[in-house]
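Q: Structure tokens for this one, please.
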Amino acid sequence: MSRYSLEPGARWSATSLAMSLAILLVPALLAGCGRGDPARETAAPSGSSVKIIAISPAPGELLRTGSTVRLKVDVSYTLSVESGQVDLVVQDAGGARLAGNLKVIRKGSGQVSLDAEFVVPKTGAIQVFTPLTAQGQGTTSTVDSRVFEVIGGQ
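A: Here is the predicted structure, written as tokens:
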């Protein structure tokens, strides 16, 4: 019988058992090392928020495939850390980025206007997002959004 056998009554040496545990536990421990890294957080710092207060074209307006759209978005925000940014992200229904813009913001509350121009592709919808991120933050779940239906596409 091999010392690595899993048959009933088989015995593992202390070295074999320690090596097996190390192989299983080291990757799990390394995966946990990134916790607490601000760049890996998903929400902007507590007390921060973002809201679309005006958008042109108006919500509900149909967009036509092949047309050029000049999008203007007014956003209100509150940022609880020293600096960050509000982005304007325009995507098609499949998530392909069509246009974007950003404004650097400072701690406190305020409003910013963002604009972007794009040609409407063959798609079912155009998605508009305004994520707020703190300086150095990689991704965020602090976001507002709108969606426009596209005609003449898909």
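A few notes: Residues 1-7, 12-41 have pLDDT under 50 and may be disordered. The radius of gyration is 25 Å.
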